[in-house]
Amino acid sequence: MDLLSNKWIVNVLICCFFIGVGCNSVEKKIYVHLNYTVPCVRLLNATHQIGCQSSLSGNVGVLHVLESEDNLDWVLSKGPNPPYLVILEAALFTRSIMMKLKNGSNRVAGVAVVAPNTNPTEPFSPYTTCPNENTGVYTEKYDPAYAHCNVTVWNPLGNGLAYEEFDFPIFSLKDDNDTQVIRQCFLDHNQVVNGSAPQYPLCAMQLYSHMSAVTDTATCMRRNDINFSISPEGVCDPLGDSNVWASSRPINTTQKGHKNSENVIIAAARLDSRSFFFDIAPGAQSSVTGFVSLLAAAHALRNATQEAPPNRTILYTFFQGETFDYIGSSRMVYDMENNQFAVDLDNVHSVLEVGQVGLRSDSQLWLHSDPVSRRNSSVNDELIENLQVASKDLNVTVNQPQASQPLPPSSFQRFLRARPIPGIVIEDHQSVFTNRYYESMYDNAEYLNISYPSNLTADEQLEHITETATVPFTLSPPTAEFKFIHLSSEPTFLVQYLLANLTGTVVNVTKEDCQHQREDDKDKESHHLYHYMWVQGSVPPNGTQRESFCVRSTVHLSKALSPAFDPLKEYTSTEYSTWTESRWKTIKGRIFLVASHELEMLTLGVGVGVLVTSLLLTYLISSKADILFSSGREPTNATY
């Protein structure tokens, strides 16, 4: 290769570099990327799919800020520049509007909902009116009179929006600088004035949320098993996590199945919640009040159960995945039935579940039990009597609903589905939910009136106890402190460490022994009974290094994965949850100005013309290159 060829290669590489840099710079000038975008994603079960998605290349539409439901006509019929990407204020994010947009989806490219900084005044629950109606205890086999919420519609405010399928993307946007840019872009370019269409250029938005899975769980799981590449990628994943549990006295976890002379009371709460949008599921009332109350009770009872062990072992249990057809509780019941858990169902004396207990002004708790199993058992009556006695000296009233009132949606139903175990579910509602924002993004700390005085520092807030914080001690000795913690949608490990800290014991062992689950190098038994955690600890007031230590507890994790996936592989099961979540690659949104179709076609035509002309000139020049670029060379023996 000669020197001239090398120079050409260098020049080409330099041109490519500058073209790449130039394209990146142009891209930044054309698009404004949105920083906070949370999508609605696709979920699937044994029969169908729900949720939202975009096309593979993202959905593009002209921005239209919806002012009222009456303004929908512009999007669905009158507007001359479809498809539209509709911007909704939270007050307009209703089933009525969303179903109209769904039915006119050929003119709708997507929806962006502006999440408010404060909760709306109107109730909102995108969940169904009868949560988990097909996987609880009340079926046609158990008692048809109670099936499908025939007696009590627990969530009458539920609009079922989270269980609809939309063939366009729906995003939640934080009400911040991004949304201000969007609104201004709409006002500058897209606003309809006196009924006349705005002129180009128009402000447009593009949303990316393409989902890999389609149809149902059986289809996506079958596609997961098909490998066409060296590094195969699945299209969906079963919903699942881990249950957290601890016992008031050590239980051998290595030996599974029945334990002779072991009598267990399961004290349960759920950990999970959901909303319409992925990863926005505060669940303050629907789940946090329950599991924080149970954490507080476990802490308050720690010393009492160690100093005077009760006749029965308390099994503090925190279930994951209960929103999606009782994933966690159904798995624990399955493992107990198949000798895959530390105890079996024969060891279970009763169940006490803490549900939604974010007390309102009337300060009442309701003790729910199953009217069917109660007919043949007196244990329920004993449980209710003990709870009523315990509440006499407290500032809370404990009542029972009517005898014909069925159980509300609860993990306890999965135990009853296996056998008639006595049990009580503690709730703050007599019949229908008092939660106005059940399974929505508004079920948050604001809804429970959780706030701190403005003059407190971040550290002082951690020590501050609000009035709401006293609620968890209404059924246990008020000796422990409780602070509301805003948890993410994946609180499993946080609850695991909290429970270990609240119920465990600090032991004097080395870091190595602690991490090897033993008291010392000769200890071969402790790992069957306990779980050891090495804790970093805090920095003392006058120190510079953390004071680490080891905590020994009876806290363990167990599977919260539906038996329909493991081990049964029955993806069309009607007995167990079959929910899966689609995988995706890109979640993003951006806005830009779009030219008219005529201008785009003109630009394309000019570009094609330039390309053809360039090719023609290149061909002509190449064919005459020997004439155009030839230069008479002097002979090598020429002298001057």
UniProtKB/TrEMBL annotation:
Residues 1-23 form the signal peptide. SUPFAM superfamilies: Zn-dependent exopeptidases. It is found in: Membrane. GO terms for cellular component: plasma membrane. It comes from the Eukaryota. Residues 39-213 form the Nicastrin small lobe domain. The chain crosses the membrane at residues 601-621. Coiled coil: none annotated. Pfam families: Ncstrn_small, Nicastrin. It is a single-pass type I membrane protein. One of its GO terms (biological process) is Notch receptor processing. Keywords: Glycoprotein, Membrane, Notch signaling pathway, Signal, Transmembrane, Transmembrane helix. Gene3D superfamilies: Zn peptidases. Its main location: membrane. Belongs to the nicastrin family. This is Nicastrin. It comes from Sphaeramia orbicularis.
